[in-house]
Amino acid sequence: MTDIAQALDRIVPPYDGVGDWERVLRDAGLERRPRRRPLRLGGAVALVAAVIGVVALWPSGAGPSVIDRALAATGEGPVLHLVYESDLPHTLVDLETGERTELRAEHEVWFDPGAGLRETERFDGIVQFDVSLSGDGVSEHASSLYTSLGAGYREALESGQAEVLGEDVVEGTPVYWIKIGPNNHDVAVSRETFEPVFIRVTQNGTTGLTRIVAYHTMPAGSAQLEVTSPETLPSELGSYGADLELTDAASLLGRPPVWAGPDLHGFALDSVRELRLPASGGAITGLSLAYGSTGGGAHVEISQAAELVDSLTMIAGVRGYEPPEGTLLLSGTMALLRSNGLVVTIHAPDGEMAIEVARSLRPFRG
Questions:
Q1: Cα separation of 338 and 284, whole Å?
Q2: b/e map 174-191, b = 16+ CB within 10 Å
Q3: Under 8 Å CB-to-CB from 58, ≥6 apart: which residues?
Q4: Cα separation of 342 and 258, whole Å?
Q5: CA dist., res. 143 & res. 147, Å (int)
Q6: Is residue 54 part of a domain?
Q7: Measured on CA atoms in the order 311, 314, 319, 325, is the torsion positive or negative?
Q8: Tens digits of per-residue pLDDT, 253-298?
Q9: SS3 call for 149
Q10: Does residue 312 contact residue 301 with C-beta atoms inside 8 Å?
């Protein structure tokens, strides 16, 4: 990215307020235990009567202890470490059985207000980007946001802004929902650990749910800010070269190309073109097959190369990743798979057609 600070602002959408949990959290410990003092019998009886009166006013299944325990699970210190799942899922499709599995990237944040920020995203364990900024390089927006995610959540619990909404079961996890301030941000904490496990955000009438993978707040100086593998993204996804005959494509790829036949749902094979794909060791050559309508314009495009290269896989929204043999990774109308030893992406009008095209692929034998 040419401007990392601007890129991070795109990754983290603008927000004004306290306790923004749109990109959030989990995994901290130590439950606080109240002190106990000896009571004389008369004082104990009076206390029991008072407690019974207060409990009668608590919402069903919850009470002040939910806030106390959630507060105890936040940890201490200004450093924020959080991991959350991406809001944009991919779908892994078994091409034989049709079974579908949702896959989401995990976004990790380390933020120390006095030292800087590091953001890393991984898809199925493969780093998608890893960037770090010093304290002076962190934008005001990012600094404000991540400060509120750490200390802001704790302050909301301490100040009385937080309100217990009740019990629920979310994706099989028993939780308490807690409303954080007046900003339509609800945090689900585990009924077992009282650590944050989900965030629910309502904006413009739309409610989104994000799974929290890990959340810690720690002492200053404990953030892991060093980038182990500097980010290098291709400057472009590729460009078209010369028109080819399909019979000549095997020499280009080192093996027969894959195609969906001479026509696809009534759309004829419209063009066969060389595809130039940027790579770390220099550009490699791929192939593009376009099936178009009689009125012109591609209806389906099948791109392929003999190597796994980011400038090709990023068409499907991932880098450095290929799905297991016999499966397809679906991202909207884009699909990624291995076919006949080639890395293949499919661009179709909709996801179901992309799957159908993938199932129809076969080597071109001339």
A1: 17
A2: ebbbbbbbebebbbbbbb
A3: 64
A4: 8
A5: 6
A6: no
A7: negative
A8: 999 999 999 988 778 898 999 999 988 777 889 999 999 864 555 6
A9: helix
A10: no
Q: Strand 185-190 to strand 196-203: parallel, antiparallel, or no bridges (unpaired)?
A: antiparallel
Among 143-152, 159-168, 236-245, the least confident range = 143-152
Same domain, 130 and 208: yes
Name 53's Cβ contacts closer than 8 Å, sequence gap at least 6: none
Residues 183 and 243 in one domain: no
CB 331 within 8 A of CB 105: no
| 197 and 283 part of one domain | no
pTM of structure:
0.72
Instruction: Give the structural domain span for 312.
Output: 239-363
∠ CA 228-233-239, nearest 5°, is: 160
Enter the DSSP assignment of 314.
G
Place of tokens 């029991």: 48
Rounded to an integer, what distance in angstroms lies between the CA atom of residue 196 and that of residue 176?
Answer: 9
Please check whether residues 286 and 354 belong to one and the same domain.
yes
Do residues 277 and 284 touch, judged by C-beta distance below 8 A?
A: yes
